[in-house]
Design a protein that fits this description.
The complex is a heterodimer of chains A (689) and B (253). By secondary structure, chain A is an alpha+beta fold. Chain A contains 21 helices and ten strands. The two termini of chain A are 41 Å apart. By secondary structure, chain B is of the alpha/beta class. In chain B, helix 3 runs parallel beside helix 5 and helix 5 runs parallel beside helix 6. Chain B is built from eight helices and ten strands. Chain B starts with a strand and ends with a helix. The chains are: A alpha+beta (689), B alpha/beta (253). Chains A and B meet through helix 11 and helix 19 of A and helix 2 and helix 3 of B.
């Protein structure tokens, strides 16, 4: 009987606080479900079995850690909110004669009930939906899945373990809070007289400065490598600045407005401004969290969607033809040697033997090196600069390729003629070469006849994190031989790699089905290339686009999939924070609302004022998130360029769509939660009749 | 000339399904002259709060009439009622009803801000009033920083700052200790002497003994009234106590 009473008290506690517990339990269910699904996919043998599945599982395993960590933080937040509202009830029990030990037992049972409910429902939902997630994933990888439902006991165990630990921690935290308080403090914990928040100019200004700095960094960086280095720095700055501005900045602004008497003492400003001070003090941190979560969701979803949608393009950039041969030559004399011609004809013979045709041939030579261009002269990078990890070290670095103008004309279908001492120039990644002339090392400067706006893709270029500079020259073979001399360096670097590398690119598309494509690629790799390599001593890299495609989709699809899953989780989190914020404000505003009406504010005036405050508080985070996103855009597009996703229009489109969808979703949440808020606020009057 | 006239006032509460009709006020008639200080006494459940709510236009009567300064409250449209209340009535409540997000100064100025007055006008009215009420030097403080007596004086200042025709006080000493009660009642006396009409609802004999006239209400009807005449507070106190005893024992007066 005694034991029964604790359990009944625990059940009653949950039922009586339905408004608070329902969303909390729903979140637990959601978190459990998501965690199970991600864990399930990351260890499911069915997923491992498909092509690209292992890459996908690697990404998903990372996602598991993110998800677990996030679940911990988030459930703690929810719990602290519940505790704040329930302390009064516990204080009452305490005064009525329940010791802290008895309270601990009640809390233990409450935790057990919540845990059983949310883990049970969460796992069940997870098992059901994991099949759906699996189907989606198979679809992304271009495979078809069976429709049998399977349960991964390893994932169940992992999920149970993680959430059992989280719930234990939550219980410990709640007990700690009960233990520290005396009953009177517990009883009055809800309505302690609150000091009016002070304006903190220092933090407000600091926040503004940090934000400005982060934005400045984001928009002024123009090379990809530096972008990669500063990205996390900028993110941390933005997070700090957001917290400072929401917590200190908002209060400071309200305080400043209150000082301006003629502004403040107006019907439309008076109540709103003075309430906003308190509202922002209490909710600043929560709002900043919402804002940052929103930004994260938006960045993550829009960039992964962009990557996934643009996968085909970047695949074509990285692997320009169905079959791509990259032959590294030892000396310039080999560029036009018989062996090279032989390799061509052997390949062609093999293709026709398989009954296919070879078309869209990409055939050109380059001599390249990595270096800097200063004052119109290209120099090679020295070793220290090459391995530098300092931001900005790569700011003026280029991958420089020399190509003969004949190859250029043939590939691009142009008819350019160059005089002695003239060159054409092409730069990638939208970079600009500012000078009129360019010289290679100590050589004579060439006049740049024209900057052309296109050239054939090549795999090396697309893998570089620095932009490329193509110089189309009339005397290619000659110049290629003189390069090391002109640059004033030895043939090998200290690390033993070639300073100047000579490549012959030979790529073509095949007119046959996919299986034959794979067969031909394998045949070239196994039969033609070894003979050639032993004949010439050159090394050849053979890449088939089709075979790489699965890897590509595994990586991009994996990121996309994880982006969407985590996006959903973050969105859930944002919804919950918003809901709790509305509820807690509702309770706080209840009495205030009542007094204002007695003092002579009309219901309409009160609604108007409350509404404007709620709107401000509600849409401030999402607007700030939009601003962050806009400023982060240059950085994101630079980072995505590393993945060969250089389609800025696509990125703008996905970002804008993500933002719009998000705002739409947000408005829906707003409408639903405001109803809860208004029902609480007006509840007090209706009760009294 | 009477500033408030109440005639044939009725209020009947009906349970939601209309099964039960509970009369709170049956037939209340009285009037208050300009500059009068009237206390209404009665036990809990006697209908005094209902009466005050109707006078404050917070509630509507089932029958009868309330005329404030020549205007029938029933004739005021809903949209105007808040503005009417703001301009003509001042309220003092048992639990002060100060907004904790405002300093005392801002709490007092709230009705003026709502009426759209300028800041200069507000300070012009506030300074002398605050000095008179002895809260001139704590105006910048917040409600949680001051004592109950000081809070109630700030609430009185808020009621008076619009220069209302009638101040309605609902159990104003209910939450105060005896010293603060004495101070507040003295203050009410002074305010009344300066010409302000006050109508106070209370069940404290002490509070009522400061009024010029005391009305007794029982079971929704006015039962009895005592005029101060030339009595001192102590004499009036005695008289009220006697009347209450009679009321409780059901004896004839």
């Amino acid at each position: 009987m005694r034991k029964g009473i604790y359990r009944r008290l625990a059940r009653m506690g949950i039922q009586k606080n339905k408004k608070l517990y329902t969303p909390s339990i729903l979140t637990c269910i959601g978190m459990t479900m998501m965690f199970y699904i991600i864990l399930f996919l990351s260890i499911s043998p069915a997923v491992r079995g498909i092509a690209g599945g292992d890459t996908m599982q690697l990404i998903l395993r990372l996602g598991c850690y993110v998800m677990g960590f996030f679940a911990l933080i988030f459930l703690f937040y929810t719990n602290s909110f519940l505790m704040r509202r329930r302390k009064k009830e516990f204080g009452l029990y305490n005064i009525l004669g329940m010791g802290k030990k008895n309270l601990a037992v009640v809390m233990f049972w409450e935790t057990v009930y919540v845990a059983i409910l949310s883990l049970g429902a969460g796992l069940l939902a997870g098992m059901l939906l994991s099949k759906l997630a699996e189907l989606c994933m198979f679809r992304i990888l271009g495979e078809t899945a069976s429709f049998t439902l399977s349960v991964e006991w390893g994932a169940v165990r992992g999920t149970l373990l993680l959430f059992a630990v989280i719930f234990l921690l939550l219980l410990a935290n709640s007990l700690r809070q009960i233990q520290l308080q005396n009953p009177i403090a517990l009883l009055h914990s809800e309505n302690v007289g609150e000091k009016p928040p002070k304006a903190n100019w220092l933090f407000a200004v600091l926040g503004a400065v940090l934000l400005a700095a982060a934005y400045y960094i984001a928009v002024t960086i123009d090379d990809t490598v530096t972008a990669l280095f500063v990205f996390f720095g900028a993110v941390i700055l933005v997070i700090l600045a957001t917290y400072l501005l929401f917590i200190a900045g908002s209060v400071t602004i309200c305080r400043f407005l209150q000082k301006r008497k003629n502004y403040y003492y107006k019907t439309s400003h008076f109540v709103s401004v003075s309430s906003m001070v308190y509202r922002m003090k209490r909710n600043g941190a929560g709002l900043a969290s919402i804002c940052i979560l929103c930004t994260m969701v938006l960045v993550m979803v829009s960039s992964t969607v962009c990557l996934y949608v643009g996968a085909e393009d970047s695949l074509r950039t990285r692997y320009p033809r169905h079959v791509n041969l990259d032959v590294t030559l030892e000396e310039p004399a080999q560029f036009y040697s018989d062996e090279v011609q032989e390799l061509r004809s052997e390949t062609a013979a093999l293709v026709s033997q398989e009954g296919a045709e070879l078309y869209n041939v990409l055939d050109y030579r380059v001599a390249g090196f990595a270096g800097f261009v200063t004052d119109g002269r290209a120099w090679t990078m020295d070793e220290s600069a090459y391995n530098s990890t300092e931001p900005g070290a790569y700011a003026d670095a280029w991958q420089i390729f020399l190509v003969s103008v004949e190859d250029y004309n043939r590939l691009m279908g142009k008819d350019e003629t160059l005089n002695e001492g003239e060159v054409l120039l092409y730069t990638t990644r939208g970079e600009n070469y500012p000078e009129d002339t360019i010289a290679i090392g100590s050589g004579e400067p060439y006049t740049i006849k024209e900057e052309v706006d296109d050239f054939a893709d090549n795999g090396i270029d697309s893998m570089q994190i620095i932009p490329s500079l193509y110089i189309f020259v009339p005397n290619f073979e000659e110049l290629a031989g003189q390069l090391t001399e002109l640059l004033g360096v030895g043939e090998k670097t200290a690390a033993g790699t070639d300073v100047v590398s000579l490549h012959w690119f030979y790529g073509f598309d095949l007119s046959c089905d996919q299986q034959t494509q794979v067969d031909i690629t394998m045949a070239i790799e196994d039969e033609v290339l070894p003979a050639y390599e032993s004949r010439t001593g050159c090394s050849v890299l053979c890449e088939g686009a089709l075979m790489k495609r699965t890897d590509y989709y595994a990586l991009y699809g994996g990121l996309f999939f994880l982006g969407v899953l985590l996006g959903i989780v973050f969105l859930l989190a944002a919804v919950l924070i918003i809901y709790y914020k509305q509820i807690s404000e509702g309770y706080e505003d209840q009495s205030r609302f009542d007094i204002m009406q007695k003092v002579g504010m009309t219901r309409r005036e009160i609604w108007k004022s409350v509404n404007s405050q709620v709107l401000t508080v509600f849409f401030l985070p999402v607007l700030t998130a939009g601003l962050h996103l806009a400023f982060a855009f240059p950085l994101i597009s630079k980072m995505l360029a590393l993945f060969n996703a250089v389609n800025t229009r696509l990125l703008i489109l996905t970002t804008a769509i993500c933002y719009l969808v998000f705002v739409l979703f947000y408005v829906v949440i707003y409408r639903v939660t405001s109803r809860a808020y208004y029902s609480i606020v007006s509840g007090s009057r209706e009760e009294r009749g | 000339m009477s500033i408030l006239e109440v005639s044939g006032l009725k209020k009947t509460y009906v349970t939601p399904l209309g099964a039960n009709r509970v009369p709170a006020l049956k037939n209340v008639n009285f009037s208050v002259e300009k500059g009068e200080y009237v206390a209404i006494m009665g036990e809990s459940g006697s209908g005094k709060t209902t009466l005050l709510n109707i006078l404050a236009a917070l509630d509507k009567p089932t029958g009868g009439q309330v005329i404030l300064d020549g205007r029938d409250l029933a004739g005021i449209r809903d949209a105007e009622i808040s503005a009417f209340r703001r301009d003509n009535l001042g309220f003092v409540f048992q639990d002060f009803n100060l907004l904790d997000t405002f300093s005392l100064e801002d709490n007092i100025c709230l009705p003026l801000v709502l009426a759209g007055k300028t800041y200069q006008e507000m300070t012009r009215r506030l300074t002398p009033l605050a000095d008179r009420l002895g809260i001139g030097d704590i105006l910048k403080k917040y409600p949680y920083e001051v004592s109950g007596g000081q809070k109630q004086r700030a609430a009185v200042a808020r009621a008076l700052i619009t220069g209302p025709k009638l101040v309605l006080a609902d159990e104003p000493t209910g939450a105060l200790d005896s010293r603060a009660t004495d101070e507040l009642l003295t203050l009410f006396g002074q305010i009344n002497e300066s010409g302000q009409t006050i109508l106070m609802v209370t069940h404290s004999v002490k509070a009522a003994s400061h009024a010029g006239r005391v009305l007794f209400i029982k079971d929704g009807e006015l039962f009895h009234q005592i005029y101060r005449g030339t009595m001192t507070n102590e004499q009036l106190y005695q008289k009220i106590s006697d009347a209450l005893t009679m009321l409780a024992t059901g004896g004839e007066l």
